[in-house]
Amino acid sequence: MRYRWKLGRPFTIATVLPALLALLVIGAVIPVIATTYSINASNANALLSTRAELLVDGLENQLRGLLDPITAQLTTARGVIEQRALDFEDPVAFETFVEGLISGTPQLSGIGIIRPDGTMRRWEKGRRGALEEQADALPLVGQALAEASLTDSVRWSAPFVSLVLRDTILNPRISIRRNGEIAGILTVGVTGRRLSEYVSELSDGEVTAFILYDRDKLIAYPNRSPDEAAPTSTRLPTIQDSSLAIIRDIWVEENELTQSNKMVRTEGHWAPINGTPYAYFYREITGYTPEPLLVGVAIVSAESRWFRWAALLAAALGLILLAIAVVAACVLGRRIAAPMVQIEDALSKLESMDFDSVALPQMNQSWIAEWRNSAKRLTKTATALASFNQYVPGTLARRLMNRPQDAAQPQERSVTVMFVDMEGFSAFARAHTAQQSAERLNTVFRLIGPVIENHGGVIDKYTGDGLMAFWGAPDLQGDHRRRAIDAAQEIRRVIDEVTGESWFEATPRLRIGLHAGPAIVGNLGFEGRVNYTLVGTTVNTAERVEQGLRGRRPDQSVIIGMSQEMYDQVKPLAGLDGAETIEVGHHHIVIL
Fold it and tell me: Does the pTM exceed 0.90?
């Protein structure tokens, strides 16, 4: 079984063409905008990721550049001490060695020697002479001595707070051996204050660098306040102790970054800090503390806003241009479709036989040659049809348009036939020129022709100084008798109104004969030359009625007569008072 689409109400070309052009523009541009947005967004994310990784790389390299030389110096120092058998207790020789060690490693805050008994002699940077510390005043000394025999390499302890230095300390150490026995532990310290100075160099108004231990312990960040730099207990300060909200609230809200999947070694998230979004980028580094250090940067999102919004701005600009293109396509489509709308309007007027109002101004002025040519041809067609309409009754022409197959097929119809003749026109023609005679005929026909058509009649032919008309065909008219009588009476009123005027002087009077009955109506003739007309006794009778009025009531400008048969059919109708019946030959004629 086949299914066919059922077509609904069709669309106008003024709607379809702009819509199609707009869809073509949208279909062509949207993929480009989407692809461009995707590429720009990907590039923006890649740039942000690269920038973030470069910032974290710089911080990591800075930190390693500070701490790795310390590891190397400790290893070198142990070799020198063990080879030269330097005595820790020699105040001159060992202090000279320490001063050289500190000057070669400026990031150190001090150097100390832990004796096997747990006491320590230490030297502070910028201060001459050694300081003695007792074991009970030193944190982690017992742990350091216990671990000294486990390895000969540099070992980093967990960050701790020195109440003496009043700061957080990163503390690497290495054991010194003599004759296979532990002679002491060489240890150095790097303060959080010192690291914060280096971190500050990497920070600016939009970027804040930081170093954390175990994710929440403060090691270094720029512009630490004096209170944070001088703790009063051995508890490591945490991010909650920070005076900076961007450090304090770093883990309060962890929102995923769109570019996080583009980064290789760095992690990140973003969080709103006091109403301002910040992006955090960070990574863990190992080798300096038991738990990894976390180095990272916090960036105000406005810093990267242009990168994030550039793709959207480009897409928005593309959409704006697309909207302009769609509007232009719609305007262009309507302008292109306008001639088609004019053609449709012109054809509608041709269909309704309104030939005189066919106008195609836009097509005639179009820059498209086909439109101009079509306008010229359509105008010529309208002109030709207007001329043709003068020879073909309008009713018949409309019927031919609506039902071209059977509009003029011969068939029998009940009709009313009217004959009109100008009595004595031959004498009028002899007294006037041909031009004057033709003008007078046309004047009379201009007066009576519209009356016949207004009452639904069809003028079949002009018979020299008269005409033949009929009602009841080609369209069925149940009241064709009444229509014909009304037309005849109106013709009399029209002629009576102009009779007596100078320009109508000497115009022959009119005889009008009517008869109703059956007749054969349709196209009659041979192929290529036919005439839509009617034949039969009814036609002949109507003509005899008109001829039978000759010489009757000479004082009337228009005399109207009908057959007795027709009068008997319409006698009940009003408006036929004063009728007179005459006998002409074997026929009775009723004069109105």
Answer: no
